[in-house]
Write a structure and sequence with these properties.
82% helix
Length: 302
């Protein structure tokens, strides 16, 4: 953990601001019960809160600790013991596997709740600004210390690796980056050929003896493939920006290609057996796409 005086120095946190927070403590202490009720309404919306607060006893202990933390936020004493207290809370979060997203989101509520109280008790502009600055700084310092436990946990895992393991890990990360760039270029090439296929089907529709109904269905199928390819490129761009791998988009492209075949074969009575096989494959892909969607939704809820 950072040395506490250095932390306060980086945030430009002054003794005057500590006194301002101390003066706010009686008012905030009166609001503590309301804070707990609204805080629990907020965190229960995360969806997975019940997996960390498993029974009534755990919830009651957690409420007592959160209430104490909230009141202590305005203690006016921000020394080494205070920041060690925060750091231990962060270690508990790491130990139980609480995602940092939950911590960051909860602090948004804390900030909003306190600032709302400050707005409702406005006296004069100068004092109002000082109170807001003091509150913003103490909340940011709290969040900094709490999340530092996560950063040190990740760093500890990396440092525990041997030099050869670190080298392999770094090489794999570089190789993965090259593969992603290659995939992006390949998808661009696929989209280019999909456009060519669409143009070619338009040509067949207007300049050959192909039946008009078959030509229209073929063009629609090509358009569907082009749309799926564009969607896949869009998902790959998001992947390069840090999102997860979009396996669902690849399934969608495969479905689009098969649907194109169905549209073409639907006009031929000789293709009945092939249509049946393709239909089975499409249903299997649709089920896979549905399962991927459920898995993705569950990961967002976590």
């Amino acid at each position: 953990m950072k040395e506490y005086s250095q932390l306060k120095e980086h945030y430009k946190f002054s003794k005057e601001e500590a006194l301002i927070l101390k003066k706010l403590q009686p008012r905030m202490e009166n609001l503590a019960d309301t804070f707990i009720d609204e805080f629990y309404d907020y965190i229960w919306g995360f969806g997975k809160t019940a997996s960390y607060l498993k029974n009534t006893d755990v919830i009651n202990r957690h409420k007592i600790k959160i209430k104490a933390w909230f009141i202590n936020l305005f203690s006016g004493q921000y020394d080494m013991s205070y920041f060690l207290y925060l750091y231990k809370i962060g270690e508990i979060h790491v130990r139980i596997g609480l995602p940092t997203h939950y911590v960051n989101s909860a602090f948004t509520f804390v900030r909003t709740f306190i600032l709302k109280s400050i707005e409702e008790n406005f006296e004069n502009k100068e004092q109002h600004v000082k109170e807001i600055n003091a509150i913003e700084k103490i909340i940011d310092m709290n969040l900094d210390v709490l999340t530092s436990s996560y950063r040190e946990e990740e760093l500890g895992k990396f440092l525990s690796l041997s030099s050869s393991e670190k080298g392999i890990l770094s090489s794999l990360k570089k190789f993965n980056s090259y593969i992603n760039y290659f995939l992006a270029l390949a998808l661009g090439l696929v989209a280019f050929f999909a456009i060519g296929l669409f143009v070619y089907d338009i040509y067949l529709l207007f300049f050959t003896d192909i039946k008009i109904e078959k030509g229209i269905l073929t063009v629609l199928g090509s358009l569907l493939v082009l749309w799926a390819a564009i969607e896949l490129i869009h998902e790959e761009i998001k992947h390069l920006q840090g999102s997860g791998f979009a396996i669902g988009a690849f399934i969608m492209l495969a479905m689009a290609a098969l649907i194109r075949k169905v549209l073409i074969y639907s006009l031929s009575s000789e293709k009945a057996s092939e249509l049946l096989i393709i239909a089975i494959v499409i249903v299997a892909l649709a089920v896979s796409y549905w399962l991927v969607g459920i898995k993705k939704k569950d990961s967002y809820n976590q």
